[in-house]
UniProtKB/TrEMBL annotation:
<protein>
    <recommendedName>
        <fullName>Calmodulin-binding heat-shock protein</fullName>
    </recommendedName>
</protein>
<keyword id="KW-0378">Hydrolase</keyword>
<dbReference type="GO" id="GO:0016787">
    <property type="term" value="F:hydrolase activity"/>
</dbReference>
<dbReference type="InterPro" id="IPR002921">
    <property type="entry name" value="Fungal_lipase-type"/>
</dbReference>
<dbReference type="InterPro" id="IPR029058">
    <property type="entry name" value="AB_hydrolase_fold"/>
</dbReference>
<dbReference type="Pfam" id="PF01764">
    <property type="entry name" value="Lipase_3"/>
</dbReference>
<dbReference type="InterPro" id="IPR005592">
    <property type="entry name" value="Mono/diacylglycerol_lipase_N"/>
</dbReference>
<feature type="domain" description="Mono-/di-acylglycerol lipase N-terminal">
    <location>
        <begin position="9"/>
        <end position="75"/>
    </location>
</feature>
<dbReference type="GO" id="GO:0016042">
    <property type="term" value="P:lipid catabolic process"/>
</dbReference>
<feature type="domain" description="Fungal lipase-type">
    <location>
        <begin position="84"/>
        <end position="197"/>
    </location>
</feature>
<dbReference type="Pfam" id="PF03893">
    <property type="entry name" value="Lipase3_N"/>
</dbReference>
């Protein structure tokens, strides 16, 4: 009799679990992760469409009529060696600078730095007023992320370049570094996400014609496991890999709407809420393609410029805003590190490269030069 009385209770618990699963998998949209983030400005977002064109130019003969896209919309990797590189990693296999990184991507970044170090050093010394910018898409975004970290830690190999002159833009990046590194390097590394487009570090690929479907099935199972994991436990696992640095989230769709909205760009250095609860949607493969990211980033940039034109901001105030933007980003970076420490994120501590006061002094002088050039 007592067993029979427990049956309704078990059914209620099961229903609640199913409702939570449906919420996390289908109704918890990308916009919820970034709903409390700040809006990006046209000044800080301006390089992204241009860098997307640079990346696309590697594949395209005619940028006015781009035709490149892997079968399935951009999620598939083109070569068997790409799969081997992505799969060359185990949970907690490789450490770097007090955190965990993707083993295969780190090897690729080390190879690139070794081969191109001389050319990069020559360019840096020849152009002392230029920044050294790394950019990549998808798997390449993970490589340039770790390449940027290597460059920051080995600046003597690049002509003793200042940290403030190094930056990285990872387009639809792979999850390649642990949370403490993602926050600490947010002053030099920027990730661009269209809706929710990244390559899971634990995703398993099959290099054949049906790879996209299998990728989605396995990713679905992987993310289901994350649904049953408490967020506090995920944050305190130092081996989990995340999207790197400061995030720029381009939102072009909202739930229960048939058409796209005017692009909205939000930015932050989040500690929790780095798209951990999002699963791949039916648009994930197309959103991951560099062509679509280029088009939507151009639309977003035009929208930001139009808003500034309507507001009629005077040139002097634009220069002041550009100078204050650097300080705001640095304060946000400091707050993210403090929040990581408060949440007991393993190995979360202030960077060893110097104090925030020293960084602020260098960044403000750089911002003043950029504002002068902009004027």
């Amino acid at each position: 009799m007592s067993v029979a009385c427990c049956v309704p209770l078990v059914e209620c618990v099961s229903c609640l679990a199913c409702i939570r699963w449906v919420w996390k998998k289908f109704l918890y949209t990308a916009g919820r992760e970034s709903e409390n983030w700040g809006l990006a400005t046209a000044t800080e977002f301006e390089p992204i469409p241009r860098l997307c064109r640079y990346i696309l130019s590697v594949y395209e003969d005619d940028l006015t009529n781009p035709i490149w896209a892997p079968p399935g919309g951009g999620l598939n990797l083109g070569k068997e060696s790409d799969f081997l590189l992505l799969l060359d990693n185990k949970l907690g296999q490789t450490t770097y600078d007090g955190g965990y990184v993707h083993n295969g991507l780190l090897k690729a970044a080390q190879y690139v730095l070794q081969e191109e170090c001389g050319i990069l050093r020559e360019l840096v010394e020849r152009n002392p007023d230029y920044t050294l910018t790394f950019a990549g898409h998808s798997l390449g975004a993970g490589v340039v992320t770790l390449l940027t970290m290597l460059a920051v830690k080995n600046r003597e190999k690049l002509g003793h370049i200042e940290r403030k002159r190094i930056r990285c833009f990872a387009i639809a990046p792979a999850r390649c570094i642990s949370l403490n590194l993602a926050v600490r390097y947010a002053d030099v590394i920027n990730s661009v996400v269209l809706q929710v487009t990244f390559v899971l570090s634990r995703m398993i690929f099959y290099p054949d014609d049906r790879s996209t479907g299998r990728c989605l099935q396995i990713t679905f199972l992987v993310k289901n496991a994350d649904t049953c994991t408490l967020e506090e436990k995920m944050l305190q696992d130092p081996r989990r890999l995340y999207a790197p640095g400061r995030l720029y989230h381009i939102i072009v769709r909202k739930p229960f709407r048939c058409k796209r909205i005017s692009p909205l760009v939000k930015t932050a250095v989040p500690v929790d809420g780095r798209f951990e609860h999002i699963v791949l949607s039916c648009n994930a493969t197309s959103d991951h393609a560099i062509i679509w990211i280029l088009q939507e980033s151009e639309r977003a940039f035009d929208s930001l410029l139009e808003k500034e034109r309507i507001m009629g901001i005077p040139p002097a105030q634009r220069m002041e805003r550009q100078a204050s933007l650097v300080k705001e980003h640095m304060e946000e970076h400091r707050a993210a590190i403090e929040r990581a420490v408060a949440l007991d994120v393993p190995h979360a501590y202030s960077p060893s490269y110097g104090t925030f006061h020293e960084m602020e002094k260098g960044e403000n002088s750089s911002a003043a030069q950029e504002a002068k050039g902009y004027a």
